[in-house]
Amino acid sequence: MSKATLAPGSGPAAVALAALLLAACAGDGTDAPSPQPPACPGALILQGAERTAAYAEGAAASPEAQRYLAVVTNLASACNYVEGAVDVDLAFDLIVERGPALEGDSVELTYFVATMGPGEEILAKQLLSSAIAFEAAERVAGSREQLTLRLPAVTPADGAAYALYLGFQLDGAELDQRLQPLLR
User: Fold this and answer.
1) Rounded to two decimals, what is the model's pTM?
2) Is 21 inside a domain boundary?
3) How many H-runs (helices) and E-runs (strands) does the chain carry?
C-alpha cells in the first residue's frame, strides 16, 4: 500500500485531490461490469388465442346463449439452464366471466403451450386444462396457473432462438365464428 504525503502548507484543494487519487487507486476489482445472464426462450400469448367463449349447446352465438367468456393474461416467465437443457417457468392468469347460459358453478378451460424452435418450427405442443369455480353470486372468477417446461438440448448460446406460445385451444366452431365479419 502506498502512502501519500502532502507538503506543509498545502491547501484544501490539494487534500481533496489527494483523496480522489487514492480512491481511484483503491479499487478492488468489483467495479467490473457483471456478465449478462443468458437469454431465456421467449414466452408469448398467441394473438387470437388469448380469449375464448362458449355458448349453450345448439344455440347461435348470441349474448343470451353465452355460457362464459375467458381470457389468458399477465404472462410472466423465467428460465434456468441446467446441464443439457433449459427449464422455463411460466405463470399466468385465467379469468372467466359467467354468461347467462352457464349451468353449474365451474368452467373447464383447455389451453396449450407450444414450443417453437429455430426457424419457427413447432417442436412440441401440450394441451392442459384448468377448472375455474365460481362462488354463488360471483360473476368473474380466475386462477393463477404456474408450470415449468423443460426444453432439452437448449443451451445458453441458442436459448433466444426458442419461444413458448400460450393460448386457448379453440374448437372448429369458434375458429369459424372468428373468420366471420363483425358487421353484416
Assistant:
1) 0.76
2) no
3) 2, 8
